[in-house]
Write a structure and sequence with these properties.
This protein is mainly α. Helix content is 58%, strand content 0%. The chain has helices at residues 7-14, 42-68, 73-99, 122-146, 153-173, 189-197. It starts with 6 loop residues before the first helix and ends with a helix.
Amino acid sequence: MSGTLSRAQLVSRAAKGGVAVLGAGSVFAAVAAPARAATLPDGDLAYLRLLIGAELLGADFYANAAAAQPYGGAAARDLTVALANERAHYASLAAILTGAGQVAATAGDIDFSYPKGSFATTGAVTKLAVELETLFLATYLGAAGGVQAVSLAQPIAQIAANQAQHLAVFSRLLGRSAFKAAMPAPLAVEAATQALAAYTS
């Protein structure tokens, strides 16, 4: 996927809210924005940008994975559903950000990059899916504890739950337990920003 913004530009844009973060977020399309983003504090808007960056990365990854056709049967269907989930997440929180009169990043704004051979084999696709979903879940958990607006709590929790479902599916496909930690660790905003930036060129 080609784009026009560098990593530094994305971080700079996100930093306007007072927190240096990458991108922005999203929630289920079925969840209506409970409050206009204009009522949200700058720090919450920065978290939304971070989460949108995560969703754009997720959608790009799953689109590339689907094109590589690593699975058959139920696993192939799960891959397609995961892609649809990421797009729904993006659309929902992007609408909240747009409601504030701000422009949400789009796929055309970012150049994503992946380790060499990420889509060459079934094992490589599954391994990267687990790595990314672990990152996405931790990022959402960090956001859940960091936003101030009560109106964002439910959509962020819903997306975190869906990312945990993705992680469970692909962990199983990788031969790992679908669950382990009773309390998965959140990722602080700075660490999440740096981790997401590893997938942008």
